[in-house]
Amino acid sequence: MSDGLDELEIVQSLGKDVIERLVNKTIRDLEEITTSLSGDSGLTNAWDEICVQCQGEESYYWEIYQMEIDRLASINVSKLKRYEIEAAWFLTEMADEWIDDRDSWRYEQWRSHFRNESECDDATAFYFDPDSGNSGSSPQDYETYPICEDEVTKLVKVGVYSEAANWSNERIRRYCDDLDAARWVDEQNPYKKMLE
Predict the structure, then answer these.
(1) CA dist., res. 189 & res. 91, Å (int)
(2) Distance of CA 38 to CAs 50, 53, 100, 144, 175, Å?
(3) Which residue of 9, 16, 96, 101 is most buried, as measured by CB atoms within 10 A?
(4) What's residue 18's pLDDT?
(5) pLDDT, tens digit, for every residue of 63-122?
């Protein structure tokens, strides 16, 4: 008996590699956008601007940045090979639900196969194949899985936002330090409290 990974773990491992690759590709794409919406901030690309907004506060243009992340993530997912999309899809909540439903269906097929439940214990269910012809055919819902590229794109976007919340470089640190200093000065302003 092997202590290795099962098929699903292998597929999900590939899926994680695919998502990581797409997150990094989307970040590189954002770094190539040098048109600034933040004016003379010292930030040199869209990725820097997204990082400071994820680490500080969102600007007036935040929705534009979100739309660009959506667009780039979607484009990058659409360029994947079919097996890569499928492997990444197996990391989604939709895939978890599909697997649970399929396994429940298989268990019910196993139970109905044995007239007397005492003939088998529950451990046998893991080795029973309802598609073997012994229990009838499986419903179409479980013959193939419902791949949804939008769900894979969501995983990429979550990865991009997660990286942005933790990313740092000299420009981002300087901008965030200046922002913190400006907030502190603003909080110390006695006239601000009088106007509230």
Answers:
(1) 49
(2) 10, 11, 46, 47, 11
(3) 16
(4) 95
(5) 999 999 999 999 999 999 989 988 898 888 877 776 666 655 555 555 555 544 444 444
